Structure formats: structure tokens, C-alpha cells
Amino acid sequence: MTTESTGKGRPTPKRKDAQAKVKVSSLSPVVTKEQKRAQKLAVRADRVGSRAAYLRGDEAALPSRDRGPERRFVRNYVDARRSIGEYFLPIIFVVLVLTLIQVPAIQFAAIAMMYLVLLIAVVDGIFLGRRIQRLVHAKYPASSTKGLAMYAWLRSTQMRRLRAPHPQTKVGDVVN
């Protein structure tokens, strides 16, 4: 046996070269800055397109909570009527301004108005939910009405122009 070693036939790699080789993944190819920029622009354009489809109400672009003919019916029914709930946010703003006035009677009236509007919105939501469940059960007898009342009430409390997907019916339209 000889004590002479033959070696591995190549020099030991530098630590930074070995670590760089490990960092390069076989799943993600090496890309240039231009390719990254183009990919980022494509992703942004896709996201903008998806958002536009969602706001239009395209069924394929909707999340699962908004999909289905029942939910479309509920959205159209809610969008075809006015409710006090959609004016709640502007009323709260008025109440905020009125409470800044240093007259206790005005402050009390403003807070009372806020609670009155909230109570009316909740009562309207209860009646709306019952009506929605009855109409959906009549129109789609095989489908479940679970969650539709809350879905309708939450949509009715949003300001009309901020609703997503955007309303597809005008106020006063008859929804069948």
C-alpha cells in the first residue's frame, strides 16, 4: 500500500461558486431583466383583465361566493331596488360632522339619527332576506338558500357604485 494519493483530478471549488450552483434551481430557468420585466407586464395585464371580467360579472371570473344563477338573481334583485343601507356610509359622515358642533342637542340628534338608520337597515335586511329566500326557493326549487339572505343584506348595505361585481340592473327594473 502506498501513501501517495492520486487526488480527485480537479481543484476544490470556491465556496461562493458551490453556493451559487446550489441556488440555481432546475425548476426556475435563468432569466434576464428584460424577461422579468416582460413577465411582470404580462402578469399585470392578466390581473387587470381578470379584474375587469370580475367587475363585469363574467361567471368564470367570479369567486365561488358570487357564482351561480341564484347569486346572480340575488345581485340583480338587490341592485334593482333602493335601500337605506346603501346610504349608511354617507349618513355616518354627516353624523361625524354634526358631532363636531359643540351643541349637545345637535350631537344627540346626530347620534340618534345614526342609530335609527342602523336599526332601519337591519330591519330592512331581515325583510329582504326573507323575501330573497322565498323568491329563490320559488325560482330555483332544487337549490339551497343557505347564506343568500346575508349575501343580499351585505350587498344592499354597500354603496351602489362601490358594489362588486358592478350592478347589471337599473333601479326600478323588474327582476325575474
Report on the architecture of this protein.
The chain has 176 residues and is mainly α. The mean pLDDT is 90. It folds into two domains: 31 residues; 98 residues, no CATH class. It has six helices and no strands. Helix content is 57%, strand content 0%.
How would you summarize the topology of this molecule?
Elements: H1 15-23, H2 33-56, H3 69-79, H4 88-99, H5 104-139, H6 148-156
Helix pairs in contact: 3-6, 4-5, 5-6
The count of domains is: 2
Structural class per helix/strand content? Answer: mainly alpha
Helix fraction, binned, reads: 55-70%
Rg, Cα atoms, Å = 30 Å
Tell me the distance between the termini: 96 Å
Segments where pLDDT lies below 50 for 5+ residues?
Answer: none
What characteristics describe this protein?
176 residues, mainly alpha, 57% helix, 0% strand, elongated
Offer a quick outline of the entry:
This protein is an all-alpha fold and 176 residues long.
